[in-house]
Amino acid sequence: MIATPDGYYVVVANASSDTLSVIDTRTEKVVETISTKPAEQLLFGSTPNALAISPNGCRLYASYGTNNSVAVIDFQPPQSKLLGCVPTGWYPAGLVLDTTRGGLYVANVKGTGSRNQSWEGKRALKGKAIFGFNSHDAQGTLSLLNLPATEELAESTQVVLNNNRLTESISALAPPRSDAVPKPVPERHGEPSIFKHVVYIIKENRTYDQVFGDMKKGEGDPQLCIFGSEVTPNHHKIVNEFVLLDNFYCSGVLSADGHQWTNEAYVTDYLEKAFAGFPRSYPYPGGDAMAYAPSGFIWDNVLAHKKTLRVYGEFVSATIRWKDPQREGKPSFIDCYRDFVDATGLIDIRATANIKTLEDYLCPTAVGFPGTVSDVYRAAQFINELKQFEESGGFPNFSIMLLPNDHTAGTRPDMPTPESAVADNDLALGRIVEAISHSKFWPETCIFVVQDDPQNGFDHIDGHRTVAMVISPYTRRKVVDSTNYNQTSMVRTMELILGLPPMNQFDSSATSMASCFTDQQDLTPYEAVPNQIPLDRLNPQLSQ
Questions:
Q1: What is the spatial distance between Cα 544 and Cα 63, in angstroms, rounded to a whole number?
Q2: What is the pLDDT of residues 309-353, one digit of tens each?
Q3: Distance between CA 348 and CA 25 in Å, rounded?
Q4: Model-level pTM?
Q5: CA angle, 270 then 274 then 278, to 5°
Q6: Cβ contacts of residue 491 below 8 Å, gap of 6+?
Q7: What distance in Å separates the CA atoms of residue 209 and residue 230, rounded to the nearest whole number?
Q8: Residue ranges of the alpha helices (H) in 95-163?
Q9: pLDDT of 455-485, one tens digit each?
Q10: What is the rounded average pLDDT of the residues 405-426?
């Protein structure tokens, strides 16, 4: 908020509405609502989040967090006018006006991204010095701008629009063509796809190099690979048989924003500004409405367009308890694992939705966190329902699943060692892909796999680079696709397949993953390979 120098007005930046509210302090009423979109055709997603005003009260400046720019507004309520925009660094979120120097100082929260190299020479893996970026290597910046003249704004506004891919955003809103033939990824939203089913699998916290650094055909660094082919044989086999994506990036840096990017293709200003310590919440599992984008979640988009939905562990809370009420204590990992492997049925595992919308669509026995439950158990819940769908029909158009155990529990006693946890995750993924590829739904199903964030590892290209997969009968086989993609690319591709419109500026402007596909069908099923690391190898107790 900011008050005008004469005190007659207070202006409020509405980050989740793309507007500014002008309040007349004499009447305590909103007398004007100013749209802050740099182009009116754009969907939601400019995020005005900080304000400054000239001493004479005639020029208002607003930073646009997600448009990476500052707006210049001729402030004349109730007839104020957006004059144009000036580009800044990444995610501007604070403004100071310096009239003495004729300057505007802009604090860019993300700045140049995860490019801080103050750690160089201090990182090691297994005692060996390494070079690798991490998503927490944040390097914010300060933009020092000369106050723009009105005649300069047309050119600088065009730079802002180009930077934010206006052409792509507008073309994404083109209506479907009636004569479009089905293809794996339609060119326009609403045109037919060969696929009728999308399975979206979200995993946890790995960089590309951590898992695929040992892949010689991709852009990897083997020195940074700690969960290579011995630990993740199915990951390696899948990308060898289908497509290896070695230029795919997470949009966020940890689970709080990562699950919003995977599910919303957007992160609210509230969340972006919470990184100093998350004073209100750490909202990765969906428990804080301040993290919900007004443009909605992908499942809202699915349901709004009459598609069917099933949820396996994403945005749920877990209840894990002994069925015998007389038995004391909570089940441990090894209790849950043996109960599953031996099919003793002693433990009850139940999911509760953290967002009411999802309540009617949950698999009741599929939970996300905690890692007390094995991923092979989670895979079995999906596979059991897949078999039921084969018998009765009704395989959903969109299934979303959390397979979190590659997060690991570190060295926590009585939890799986990191290698065992990742091997568990790998086997679960392999079994899911195998089950789908052997089912009658395989010809019309596409599986997307992505990490929610890359924070628990290093990467020699960038701390955001991550593991992602596209698996289907129309996926290009045995190739490397080095197209620059990120999580919003994946969301847009799923929307195109399912005939859903984009939700906001990010998924509308994203590059679809069409280059991962071919028009030639290959129904060869996937055969999962067994784990090479025991899944029940536990961390020892801490020494005294």
A1: 53
A2: 999 999 999 999 999 999 999 999 999 999 999 999 999 999 999
A3: 58
A4: 0.96
A5: 125
A6: 262, 265, 298, 503, 507, 510
A7: 15
A8: 153-163
A9: 999 999 999 999 999 999 999 999 999 999 9
A10: 97
* Residue with token string 């802050």: 36
**Whole-angstrom distance, CA of residue 486 vs CA of residue 465:** 9
Between the CA atoms of 126, 129, 131 and 135, what dihedral angle is there, to the nearest 10 degrees?
Answer: 50
Q: For residue range 432-452, what is the model confidence (pLDDT) as tens digits?
A: 999 999 999 999 999 999 999
Q: Where are the alpha helices (DSSP H) in 406-518?
A: 418-437, 487-498, 505-509
pLDDT of 544 reads: 67
DSSP codes, 36-55: --SSTT--S---EEEEEE-T
The 10s digit of each residue's pLDDT in 280-314 is 999 989 889 999 999 999 999 999 999 999 999 99
Residue among 416, 425, 372 at smallest CA distance from 536: 416
Query: Which residue type, as a one-letter code, is found at position 28?
Result: E
Residue 372, token pair as written in the block: 């007390």
Q: b/e per residue, 70-106, with b = 16+ CB within 10 A?
A: bbbbebebeebebbbbbbbbbbbbbbebeeeeeebeb
The most distant pair of C-alpha atoms in the chain lies apart, rounded to whole Å, by: 78
Six-digit token string for 80: 């104020």
- pLDDT beyond 70 at 453: yes
Asked if 226 and 210 touch (Cβ cutoff 8 Å), the reply is yes
542 pLDDT band, cuts 50/70/90, is: confident
- What is the DSSP-derived secondary structure letter of residue 452? S
How distant, in Å, are the alpha carbons of 49, 71, 395, 485 from that of 19? 10, 12, 41, 30
Q: Which of 69-77's residues contact partners 24+ apart within 8 Å by CB, and which partners?
A: 69/38, 69/160, 69/163, 69/164, 70/95, 70/104, 70/106, 70/145, 71/36, 71/38, 72/148, 72/153, 73/20, 73/34, 75/4, 75/11, 77/9, 77/22, 77/24, 77/31, 77/32
The answer to whether residues 339 and 347 touch, using CB atoms and an 8 Å cutoff, is yes
Tokens of 149: 């003249």
The span from the CA of 433 to the CA of 379, in Å, is: 10
CA angle, residues 316, 318, 320, in degrees to nearest 5: 165
